[in-house]
Amino acid sequence: MCVAQVLTAHLLPPWQALGSLCSPWAAPRVGPLPPAPAMVRISKPKTFQAYLDDCHRRYSCAHCRAHLANHDDLISKSFQGSQGRAYLFNSVVNVGCGPAEERVLLTGLHAVADIHCENCKTTLGWKYEQAFESSQKYKEGKYIIELNHMIKDNGWD
Ligand SMILES: [Zn+2]
C-alpha cells in the first residue's frame, strides 16, 4: 500500500536494507568519541563558576584567578585574618562554605564558617554566620577574605 515501503523492499536485498537501517542508529550510540570535543569546549568556561562585570575593579583568587568580589562590595579593609590583613565583603562569588562553628575572635564570640575558593579549594577566610554582640551584628552574612589570597584584577591603574 505504501509506495516508499514497496520501493525499498524491491530495490534493496534484505541484508543491505538492514545494514543501511542499522548504521545511522548504531553510530552515535556506539561511538563515544564524536561528542567529546564539544563537551570539552563546554566544560572549559565552567572552570570559573561566575564572572564579575568586566568594567568593575575586582578581586580574584591569588592562586587560580577565579573572580571573588567586586570592589564595590568591599565594606572594610581593617580586619585581621589568621595570616595577616583581611578585607570584609558584602558578597562574594565562586566561594564555598564549610560548616559553621562558634569561635572567639578579637571582637568577641561569633558563629563563623570557613570559606574556600570553589575552583582551587584554597581556604580564603571565613563567613560571619552570626554575631552575638549587638555592635558586631553588621558583620552577619558578610565575608572575610585574607589579603594574601587575593589579587587586584582589572582597571586598578
Ligand atoms: Zn582559587
UniProtKB/TrEMBL annotation:
Q: Which residues form the signal peptide?
A: 1-19
- Can you say what this protein is called? Protein yippee-like
**InterPro entries (UniProt xref):** Yippee, Yippee/Mis18/Cereblon, Yippee_fam
Q: Which family does it belong to?
A: Belongs to the yippee family.
According to its UniProt entry, this protein's organism is Aotus nancymaae (Ma's night monkey)
Domain Yippee stretches? 57-154
GO MF term set: metal ion binding
- State the source organism's domain of life: Eukaryota
What's an example Gene Ontology biological process for this entry?
Answer: positive regulation of cellular senescence
Give UniProt keywords alphabetically. Answer: Metal-binding, Signal, Zinc
